[in-house]
Design goal:
The structure is a single chain. This protein is an alpha+beta fold. It is built from six helices and 15 strands. It folds into two domains: about 5-165, 3-Layer(aba) Sandwich (Aminopeptidase); about 175-295, Aminopeptidase, CATH 3.40.630. Strand 12 (about 230-240), helix 5 (about 250-265) and strand 13 (about 270-275) form a beta-alpha-beta unit. The radius of gyration is 21 Å and the shape is elongated.
Length: about 300
Amino acid sequence: MPAPQVRPFRRADRDQLTALVNTHVAAVVPGVSVSMNTVLSDLERQPDEFVTDPWVAERATLVAEQHGHVVAGAHLLRYRADAEVGASYRDAGAIDWFVCRPPASFRPDAREAADLLMRACLALLARWNVRVGYADGALPAPVVYGLPRNWPHIRAVYEDAGFRHVGDTEVILLARVADLPRTEPGERLAVERTVGECGTRLTAHADGSALGFIEVDTALARPERHTRAAGLADIGNLHIDPAAYGTGLERRLLAHAADWLRLCGVDRLVAYEAETDRTALGHLTGAGFRELTRTDRGWEHRPG
């Protein structure tokens, strides 16, 4: 059996790398996949990361090849060291995402390829002479970020290479819109629909005052990138005025959001909460959400 070889990504690798990326996406969020164009675009720039992407000074994509097949891939970023770059990103390098075939009894060499690729990634970070190295699993697909618990083989590669989880853990939840609360007959809650920071905002008013709002983003897939995520939306923001705590306003806002999502043809809604916020998690699970996965954000590797 020939040993795997690590080399820079070539355009001819695009089909196989996309298939490998979609294998990992499918384990996290149901019914979502990305196109070859999406993957190629992500290697050049990340327009959704409008704050951090302009800070990137250099990008590199590496693959591990065996028997003429791409069995692992990684995308790396080097951030500038000037004062315009945020302090935590300044002079940093990152493995933005890393994918590989999981080891199996019939494919024991899969881990060899992953380890070889990881050594090449660390060598590149060393050549870049970065202050600190970060790692993530931010594939160019909705809901896939951090290091999802569904990828134990990636976690093993990161940890064995010296990366440590230093950030927080988020719970990703999913609900069928059909299972969300519905507005009650005779509902008198005044709800105004406007443009929000993270999608369409629905604001509840009473006596001229805003009691709270929810924002739902129905544009998780950029049309020009042809991501298959139709029927999927997420909660970008959910805010309740402290004076309205305990009134059931969260549930009523969800009901109004669900009405809007049905008109949009959306059938699934995603929510994100910190693992430590049990109150918020309780509200969401009580309203029809169920845990999809947990993802660990913030992986760090310091040279030397």
